[in-house]
Amino acid sequence: MEIFIFLESIIKMYPVLTVFVSSFFSEELIVFLAILSGKGMINFWIVFFTSIFGLLCFDFLCFLIGRSRFGDYVWKRFLSKYHKDVAGVNKKRTFFYFLITKFIYGTRLISLFYYGIRKLSYRRFFVYDFVSLVFWACILLPAGWLAGKGFDMLLNFTKGAEKLFAFVLITFILIYVIHRMAVRMLKKG
């Protein structure tokens, strides 16, 4: 019990430092801090802006490690045989992959290291990473804050809304399939 009191006092005394250091460990800690902000233990905006800055610093560090001699060594020694498997990742949809890896557990560090190895420009890296981190923070941190607030009403809404979302998704899929079939039939005939 004393450890929780100690951690609470650290968070209240040094909120910016706590969020910044937490961003070097995992995104889950940042979401947990957003939950604590919903409970009133820490300011939400401190969590929001400091986590973006901290995650950007950590991502840049991983990117630099990928661009170093160590990254070249790892590429030549272990990863060059997979070059054909991931060659398309870097060419057309770099931003899309940056964005997706923020949400899929375990892929963020690998992608940062990979783009460092592939010598993505610093400017493109910064822009892609910053925009994807802001997008990540705009989705997950308010969700954590709401979880901390304990909005039962929001949970009840999402339970009813999931049927609507499923209906809309199925409708879009059906429209897409019908469109593809029509295009194929028109090309044949």
Structure description:
Helices cover 85% and strands 0% of the residues. The chain is an all-alpha fold. Helix 2 (15-22) runs parallel beside helix 4 (44-67) and helix 3 (27-38) packs parallel to helix 9. The protein is flat and about 75 Å long.
N- to C-terminal distance: 75 Å
Helix content: over 70%
Largest sheet: none
**What is the H/E order?**
HHHHHHHHHH
SSE topology sketch:
Elements: H1 2-13, H2 15-22, H3 27-38, H4 44-67, H5 69-79, H6 83-91, H7 94-103, H8 108-117, H9 122-149, H10 152-188
Quick structural overview:
With 189 residues, the protein is mainly alpha-helical.
Key attributes of the depicted protein:
189 residues, 10 helices, mainly alpha, 0% strand, flat
